[in-house]
């Protein structure tokens, strides 16, 4: 043993009373610091001040996606995960652990992935493409379904690579699964406004008879849901929109060419409200108020006809100028060539 190590061991031993006379020998400063630090950490763990996480490196083949995961795993590919793949290769490892929970008796799977579908896909891809030594880094939690949903939502809410439609469908599923259809309760648990949540639920509820018009429904955003939802009432407008969606889908299959999202929305809107040959044009639906993410009213669409769109800016509603600019931009995207 080196002098340095033997000295350190002696200091530690100095903190242990081996005498019979009841007089404890004086503890050295090094031993005191080590033992005190260990004692303090154990106390912090017991008090919950420090959370001790269990990280493990596992075979990704032992992990399956949680049924409530908010990402469509089937849509992941090398292009969507290219940035993460390159980062893992550059670092030589996965830097941020995925969040999982243990399972048993499920066809050989040991873990269920709550957050980290892209990390799982990327590690799996790398292992099958000349990097067999890479392992899947996981943070093992004991967690229930509702908490898992909220945790996944918080982690993925700011990610650009998760589409609005994926997030919207996850919210619609969770509304029934965890909140008994009570939208207000769900908004409170997610700490968002009801109006913000409504926009996502409207997108998720768009019927397939309408979304079939789009070559890639995943490209639809919550701002598109405003225009598409307006096509579903009354019944005659909905029927015309459905017929046009079927026509567009058939045309795409025949020609192999697809239209941009905005152009498809324009075609559906025109089919639902064809210009009248005579007389005054018909209004397109009832006035509709657009609010910001905090529920503050920004502008109201008074009506739309062959002459144009009539808007009222609600400058005293509490929204910001930036909110107004974003709302106007959304209207332009929907209606302007």
Walk me through this protein's architecture.
It contains 13 helices and eight strands. With 337 residues, the protein is an alpha/beta fold. The chain folds into four domains: 3-47, no CATH class; 54-162, Conserved hypothetical protein from pyrococcus furiosus pfu- 392566-001, ParB domain (Alpha-Beta Complex); 206-274, no CATH class; 284-337, no CATH class. The strands form two sheets. Strands 1-5-3-4-2 form a five-stranded mixed beta sheet. Strands 6-7-8 form a three-stranded antiparallel beta sheet, with helices on one face. A hairpin with a 2-residue loop joins strand 3 (98-106) and strand 4 (109-115). Helix 5 runs antiparallel to helix 6 (164-179) and helix 6 crosses helix 8. The N and C termini lie far apart (81 Å). Residues 8-28 and 277-284 have low confidence and may be disordered.
Number of strands: 8
Given as residue ranges, the uncertain stretches (5+ residues, pLDDT < 50) are 8-28, 277-284
- What is the CATH top level name of the largest domain? Alpha Beta
* CATH level-3 fold name of the largest domain: Conserved hypothetical protein from pyrococcus furiosus pfu- 392566-001, ParB domain
Mean pLDDT: 81
In CATH terms, the superfamily of the largest domain is Conserved hypothetical protein from pyrococcus furiosus pfu- 392566-001, ParB domain
User: Could you tell me the radius of gyration in angstroms?
Assistant: 29 Å
Number of helices: 13
Overall 3D geometry?
Answer: globular
Under the CATH scheme, the architecture of the largest domain is Alpha-Beta Complex
Question: Approximately how much helix is present in the residues?
Answer: 40-55%
């Amino acid at each position: 043993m080196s002098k340095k190590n033997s000295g350190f061991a002696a200091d530690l031993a100095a903190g242990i009373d081996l005498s019979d006379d009841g007089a404890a020998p004086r503890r050295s400063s090094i031993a005191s610091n080590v033992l005190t630090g260990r004692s303090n950490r154990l106390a912090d763990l017991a008090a919950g001040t420090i959370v001790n996480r269990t990280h493990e490196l596992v075979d990704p083949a032992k992990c399956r996606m949680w049924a409530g995961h908010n990402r469509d795993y089937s849509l992941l590919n090398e292009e969507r995960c290219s940035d993460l793949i390159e980062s893992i290769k550059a670092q030589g490892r996965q830097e941020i652990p995925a969040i999982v929970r243990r399972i048993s008796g499920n066809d050989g799977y040991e873990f269920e992935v709550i957050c980290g579908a892209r990390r799982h896909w990327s590690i799996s891809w790398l292992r099958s493409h000349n990097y067999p030594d890479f392992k899947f880094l996981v943070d093992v939690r004991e967690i229930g379904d509702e908490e898992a949903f909220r945790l996944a939502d918080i982690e993925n809410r700011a990610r650009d690579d998760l589409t609005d439609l994926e997030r919207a469908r996850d919210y619609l599923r969770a509304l029934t699964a965890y909140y008994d259809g009570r939208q207000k309760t769900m908004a409170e648990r997610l700490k968002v406004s009801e109006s913000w949540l409504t926009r996502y639920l409207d997108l998720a509820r768009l019927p397939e008879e309408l979304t079939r018009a789009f070559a890639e429904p995943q490209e639809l955003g919550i701002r598109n849901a405003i225009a598409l939802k307006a096509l579903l009432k009354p019944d005659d407008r909905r029927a015309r929109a459905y017929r046009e969606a079927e026509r567009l889908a058939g045309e795409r299959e025949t020609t192999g060419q697809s239209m941009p999202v905005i152009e498809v929305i324009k075609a559906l809107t025109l089919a639902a409200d064809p210009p009248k040959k005579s007389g005054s044009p018909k209004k397109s639906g009832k006035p509709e108020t657009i609010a910001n993410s905090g529920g503050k009213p920004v502008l109201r669409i008074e009506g739309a006809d062959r002459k144009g769109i009539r808007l009222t800016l609600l400058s005293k509603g509490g929204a910001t100028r930036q909110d107004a600019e974003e709302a106007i931009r959304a209207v332009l995207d929907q209606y302007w060539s």
